Automatic annotation (TrEMBL), chain A:
Protein name, UniProt field: Potassium voltage-gated channel subfamily D member 3
Membrane topology: Multi-pass membrane protein
Alphabetical list of CDD domains matching this protein: BTB_POZ_KCND3
Entries under SMART domains matching the protein: BTB
From TrEMBL, chain B:
Membrane topology: Peripheral membrane protein
Residue ranges occupied by any EF-hand domain in the UniProt entry: 95-130, 131-166, 179-214
UniProt keyword Membrane, yes or no: yes
PANTHER family documented for this protein: CALCIUM BINDING PROTEINS, KV CHANNEL-INTERACTING PROTEIN 4
Organism annotation: Scleropages formosus
UniProt GO molecular function: calcium ion binding; potassium channel activity; potassium channel regulator activity
Localization, UniProt: Cell membrane; Cytoplasm; Peroxisome
Chief localization: membrane
One Gene Ontology cellular component: voltage-gated potassium channel complex
TM regions (residue ranges): none
Keywords associated with the record: Calcium, Cell membrane, Cytoplasm, Ion channel, Ion transport, Membrane, Metal-binding, Peroxisome, Phosphoprotein, Potassium, Potassium channel, Potassium transport, Repeat, Transport, Voltage-gated channel
Protein family per UniProt: Belongs to the recoverin family.
Protein name as annotated: Kv channel-interacting protein 4
Coiled coil regions in record: none
Primary gene name: KCNIP4
Length: 640, 225
């Protein structure tokens, strides 16, 4: 029941007294109104904005959040109000729903945000009032289409285990997926073009012998044309059979428009093969050749614009039908009129009404060939009315078709644009992720240094600036490290640490060797702290002298060389890993340097070379790392 | 005859005007003879104290009543169509418009075609807080359609049909065609003491006061507000 009407229920009940004298039997007992309390004001605090309303207003719709006891969960004892941490603007329309009984959709609101608010407050969107319902539905449909477009693109991603048939089908439907598909696509396109050109050239008269009239090329070079035709048809047949084989649902494929076009394109050839040199049917056979022109429709697989046109015509079928119908009506009317008007004049071309059809069509479409002209005055008058109305009748449905085409075309443009933007978006998101992990490592390093070296205040200050959220996140990653106790043989018993975040050089080396699984055995912090970092370095130097990073003289140098290896990325502030980094401009998409996506832990940004100066105190140890972040532009390659 | 001719002339004039405007290509303008919008009517009720004095509602009750009333009818008065709409919402299965029409007339004590808040509240005051005598009086007023002091069989039949219409078609057992008429017969047998075919107010009140069921049902809606 509508809200306002609920307020009138007491009146309706009171008016029921009018039935009492008429009734013959006793009335049922009235329900008692327990807990009848005075109407009180409720304060609803939505993100700071206070709304006040009567309790009975909210009670009108007991199956929503505000009308039921669910709102008690949001009751704030100290301030004696109900606090909701939601958007106050959207809440306005929701509260108005309780007050007036009508739910309105504010046009400036984003459709998904509004839907979320409605869902939160337990209101179904179907009760949006008539004034706003259309707009709401339109926006919702647009949004859904957009989401569907995105989803379809996601589906293009290669599924891991596709069998040969599915791969083939994907290759057919989407030529960009692999080189083979692209080659196939272009080859078929080429042959379609060849076939069409052949058909056209066949009929051109080329060269004439003196005693004969012009012979069409087709009859002059019969063999050549026949070979060409055969080749094309063979390609088309093979293509059709392959598509038929690869189709996930063969029955549906055979019913689709494109396959019918394919069949119609190649059938005349086979029919011609079958029935040759039979004079009676060769006339019909010649007619069949006309169907070869359908090969040109095969181009619609290759051209998106053609597909859009076809789709538009399909969606405007009703307008086209109306156009046709009204034209037919007008033609019949005017043809009849012209026939009777011109009946009187002698030698008139308007011999019958169907003969007048031709005149009417030519006039209404403003062609005006002039092979049939009215001669009587009446005929001329009606002829002029005919041409004027022709313009009108044709001009009316055309804008509808045009606007449909424009809408579908723009939709396609939008999809393409979104696809292009998506790549950039994904790349930026990846940068944020790498930032997060390098911050973790940075923090860890600082934390470990703090613990082990009792560093002065600076580092501690640094670690304090990490927000609580970050530190909790880092703690989580740390726990993960500790959980995955190394099961690999390479970890020595002495420092049985779990999977650790590897130092760069070792990672580089692993990368190059393609040996992804080996994790280092020395923890960088311990090694660098104790001084026998030299051992670590030398140890690694013994293993595999890295071409460019083996025992570099200075930290800086090492870093720069290392950075040369990594793909550049933009500046990364040391500790900020928030979404603001999404706004950074990318010079280049940051790609992983190596294909070893199997590494499950991240890479540090410590260059171990700072240990070259083992006698250095803690300061230089950490400062390089900070310098690392500050000075270099390298993103430490990391995967999480 | 002259009125016919006058009407013909007016029609022809309108047609000529229309053709003229068509040929001259003037864009159609909105006709000026718009009906007076009902929304221009604004009615403010008398003060709260006066209403408190005239009715038996407390101040708070009047406030609640007015808020509900104003919500539904911002202009301050209810016209018959709105009234019918509102009342029909409570009886979705049948057709409550006829009965609502009678109710409207019962509430519209000054017969000006609209029910203002004062009319509304006065009616409710009688129905909910009035004495049994007053209630019966009100009921009689409802049944007496032409307000002549007598309830005839036809009037009663109208009322009865209106009530049965509210039930609608989907009842069990199915309502028969002559059910209203039979009910009217029973009513008249009970009420019409002197068998003169009409029921006067005294007969009505006497009879009702002697009927247990009716007396009890009058108290039914005491605590509605």
């Amino acid at each position: 029941m509508a809200a306002g009407v609920a307020a009138w229920l007491p009146f309706a009940r009171a008016a029921a007294i009018g039935w009492m004298p008429v009734a013959n039997c006793p009335m049922p007992v009235a329900p008692r109104d327990h807990g009848k309390r005075q109407d009180e004001l409720i304060i609803l605090n939505v993100s700071g904005r206070r709304f006040q309303t009567w309790r009975t207003t909210l009670d009108r719709y007991p199956d929503t959040l505000l009308g039921s006891s669910e709102k008690e969960f949001f009751y704030n004892e100290e301030t004696k109000e109900y606090f909701f941490d939601r958007d106050p603007d959207a809440f306005r329309s929701i509260l108005n729903f309780y007050r007036t009984g009508k739910l309105h959709y504010p046009r400036h609101e984003c459709i998904s945000a509004y839907d979320e608010e409605l869902a939160f407050f337990g209101i179904i969107p179907e009760i949006i009032g008539d004034c706003c319902y259309e707009e709401y539905k339109d926006r919702k449909r647009e949004n859904a289409e957009r989401l569907m477009d995105d989803q379809e693109e996601n589906k293009d991603n290669k599924l891991p285990n596709m069998n040969f048939r599915e791969t083939m089908w994907r290759a057919f439907e989407n030529p960009h997926t692999s080189t083979m598909a692209l080659v196939f696509y272009y080859v078929t396109g080429f042959f379609i073009a060849i076939s069409v050109i052949t058909n056209v050239v066949e009929t051109v008269p080329c060269g004439s012998t003196p005693n004969q009239k012009d012979v069409p090329c087709g009859e002059r070079y019969t063999v050549a044309f026949f070979c060409m035709d055969t080749a094309c048809v063979m390609i088309f047949t093979v293509e059709y059979l392959m598509r038929l084989f690869a189709a996930p649902s063969r029955y549906r494929f055979m019913r689709s428009v494109m396959s019918i076009i394919d069949v119609v394109a190649i059938l005349p050839y086979y029919i011609g093969l079958v029935m040759t040199n039979n004079e009676d049917v060769s006339g019909a056979f010649v007619t069949l050749r006309v169907f070869r022109v359908f090969r040109i429709f095969k181009f619609s697989r290759h051209s998106q614009g053609l597909r859009i046109l076809g789709y538009t015509l399909k969606s405007c079928a009703s307008e086209l039908g109306f156009l046709l119908f009204s034209l037919t009506m007008a033609i019949i009317i005017f043809a009849t009129v012209m026939f009777y008007a011109e009946k009187g004049s002698s030698s008139s071309k308007f011999t019958s009404i169907p003969a007048s059809f031709w005149y009417t069509i030519v006039t209404m479409t403003t062609l005006g060939y002039g092979d049939m002209v009215p001669k009587t005055i009446a005929g001329k008058i009606f002829g002029s009315i005919c041409s004027l109305s022709g313009v009108l009748v044709i001009a009316l449905p055309v804008p509808v078709i045009v606007s449909n085409f424009s809408r579908i075309y723009h939709q396609n443009q939008r999809a393409d644009k979104r696809r292009a933007q998506k790549k950039a978006r994904l790349a930026r998101i990846r940068v944020v992720k790498t930032g997060m992990s390098s911050a973790f490592l940075h923090n860890k390093r600082n934390g470990l240094f703090n613990e082990l070296l009792e560093l002065p205040v600076m580092e501690q200050h640094l670690s304090k600036t990490a927000s609580l959220l970050e530190s909790q996140h880092h703690h989580l990653l740390h726990c993960l490290e500790k959980t995955t106790v190394s099961l690999l043989p390479t970890s020595t018993i002495s420092n049985m640490t779990a999977h650790e975040f590897v130092d760069e050089q070792l990672y580089e080396q692993n990368c190059r060797e393609g040996a992804v699984q080996s994790y280092p055995s020395c923890s960088p912090s311990l090694s660098s702290q104790e001084g026998p970092t030299g051992t670590c370095c030398t140890h690694q130097a013994r293993k595999n002298p890295l071409p460019d990073a083996s025992v570099p003289p200075t930290c800086q140098g090492a870093l720069q060389e290392l950075s040369a290896v990594h793909i550049q990325c933009s500046d990364q502030p040391a500790l900020s890993t928030s979404r603001s980094s999404l706004n950074m401009k990318l010079d280049d998409t940051s790609r992983l340097n190596c294909k070893s996506g199997l590494i499950t832990t991240a890479i540090i940004s410590i260059p171990t070379p700072p240990a070259v100066s083992p006698e250095g105190d803690s300061q230089p140890l950490t400062s390089p790392s900070m310098q690392t972040i500050a000075s270099s532009n390298a993103v430490k390659v990391s995967t999480l | 005859m002259s009125s016919c001719r006058k009407r013909c002339k007016r029609e022809i004039l309108k047609l000529a005007q229309y053709l003229f405007r068509l040929l001259m290509g003037t864009l159609s303008t909105d006709s000026v003879e718009d009906e007076l919008e009902l929304s221009a009517v604004r009615h403010r009720p008398e003060g709260l104290e006066q209403l408190e004095a005239q009715t038996r509602f407390t101040r708070k009750e009047l406030q609640v009543l007015y808020r509900g009333f104003k919500n539904e009818c911002p202009s301050g008065v209810v016209n018959e169509d709105t009234f019918k709409d509102i009342y029909s919402q409570f009886f979705p299965q049948g057709d409550a418009s006829t009965y609502a029409h009678f109710l409207f007339n019962a509430f519209d004590t000054d017969h000006n075609g609209s029910v203002s808040f004062e009319d509304f509240v006065m009616g409710l005051s009688i129905l909910l807080r009035g004495s049994v005598q007053e209630k019966l009086n009100w009921a009689f007023n409802l049944y007496d359609i032409n307000k002549d002091g007598y309830i005839t069989k036809e009037e009663m039949l109208d009322i009865m049909k209106a009530i049965y219409d509210m039930m609608g078609k989907c009842t069990y057992p199915i309502l028969k065609e002559e059910a209203p008429r039979q009910h009217v017969e029973i009513f008249f047998q009970k009420m019409d003491k002197n068998k003169d075919g009409v029921v006067t107010i005294d007969e009505f009140i006497d009879c009702c006061q002697n009927d247990e069921n009716i007396m009890r049902s009058m108290q039914l809606f005491e605590n509605v507000i």
